[in-house]
Amino acid sequence: MKHLYCALCFVSCVLLLAGCSKKPDGFPAIYPCSVTVVNGTTPIEGATVLFHYENNSNAIVTVTGQTDSSGVAKMRSIQASYDAPGAPAGKCKVIVKKIPFLPDTKTDEEKRAMTINEAEAYKQSRVDEAAKLPREVPAILESSTNTPISQEISAPKSEFTINVADYQ
Length: 168
Hints:
It is a single chain. A six-stranded antiparallel sheet has the order 8-7-5-4-10-11, with no helix packed on it. The longest helix is centred in the first third of the chain and has 17 residues. The N terminus is likely disordered. Helices cover 23% and strands 32% of the residues. By secondary structure, it is an alpha+beta fold. It has two domains: 106 residues, Sandwich (Immunoglobulin-like); 35 residues. The protein contains three helices and twelve strands.
């Protein structure tokens, strides 16, 4: 019984410490921020939203969010293992990505049986097939060099909507 109690205490301490992460030095002040991604009035679920700050002003922090069923991405700022809700203030390019889903046509067993060349050819065929699928988010929004969307993030809170129909 004593060993069980010790094991439970150890597991509890590990889980408690795993959830703790110290704010890194130089981590900027962040503010609540959400982005809604829609096509007209239809929310887009499963899109990734990224902020690329101009002049690399917040290059040490990755700012990202994933849209939910309402099309809303609550932005999070991440540096190393530290992750906090919100985004730093500043002007940024907004990147929106959503890769079309392509179901796998091979089982794990079939993939393990492939030679390296067969595996590479299979991967390339998947990329080629995915490129032919209709996209919910236009490709122009997928890179910081091409996206036409700029946004100023400021205190106390930033909320804005991206209508992908405006970029098709």
